[in-house]
Amino acid sequence: MPTAINEATVTGVAGNILSIETPTGKLMKNEVAYVCLGDERLKAEVLQVSGKTAKLQVFEETEGIRIGTRVELTGHMLSIALGPGLLGSVYDGLQIPLYDMAEQNGFFLKRGATLDPFDPDRHWALHPACRVGDQLQAGMVLGTVTERNIKHSIMVPFDEPGKVEVLEIREGEFRVTDQVARVRDTQGLERPLSMVQQWPVRTPLAGTLLRQRVIERLYPADLLVTTQRMIDTFFPIAKGGTACIPGPFGAGKTVLQGLIARHSSVDVVVLVLCGERAGEVLETINDFTTMEDPRTGGKLLDRTVMICNTSSMPVAAREASIYTGVTVAEYYRQMGCRLDLTVGPGDAGNVRPSGRDPGGRGVPGLPRLVDQRGL
Questions:
Q1: I need a labelling partner for 279 at 20 to 30 A (CA). Which of 21, 85, 102, 156 fits?
Q2: Domains of the chain by start residue, with CATH
Q3: If residue 329 lies in a helix (H) or strand (E), which one and from where to where?
């Protein structure tokens, strides 16, 4: 959990939107903040900055927050951890593993509780894909581990602005937090690397590489075979394209999404259940846990990352789940995996409700957001 670099106090409360003021004036839009209520630290995000004041949206219920409540500002953007161990996991929009959270706190989520997104004790067998002295850039492969049914690439962090020289690369079994490599940039600064990297969810993963023309964005050219004859015949979907399944409650949207995920020619499924009813979320999790995967012979969940926020969760948490899902999809795309990113159906179009977004930021409609991120 990020430590505080600045403090503020609450000056107003309106639902899950807080007004805060800091004496230093050091505020940054979209930075993570924590509202302190006794032993609870409620995660929030800065929406709007105006001088020494700002608006926060809180990802938890705001009961008990009052004028004068202390707020810690971290200076870090809302980020998630990317590394081996994502597949087969069920997270909420802030990348808290829900199965582990249920085991620790019961099935009713404790406000302010958080857990590491990866098993800190699990070891992964790393096989180097480079040598000492190699010159690499952001996104290039340092080594690989076997994750479920795919070869998971451990890549040079995407925030490296230029070339780096490999000073050390290790082989063997390591935990995700262990140092496995060491690189040096053109300024002579050395950086230890593990198998996990943090990335801000509101920043496109490959944005810097595209601007530097290191990589090229590919546009849809081939058809995605879903094996659903109605779709492939009358409503074909392109690889890299976007599709929408409209329909009322009980029409079978989620069933059709499951069929596409199960039988399509994709390697990894990222399923974001944003704004769904709790019963439907539970049914989907059970289906993916028990459904046979015809591609691997295992269970469909083994090549799926699920991100769940039900309709009863605060709107800020539901919004974050979409960005989290898109970032996870970008990560596996950079490895060369074929992706099925499914969002919805509850808040897929636009999760910005009227009067709840004083920062004027909101979330663009899903097709636009996916297009902006190159998925």
A1: 85
A2: 6-77 (2.40.10.170), 79-118+218-372 (3.40.50.300), 124-195 (2.40.50.100)
A3: helix 315-334
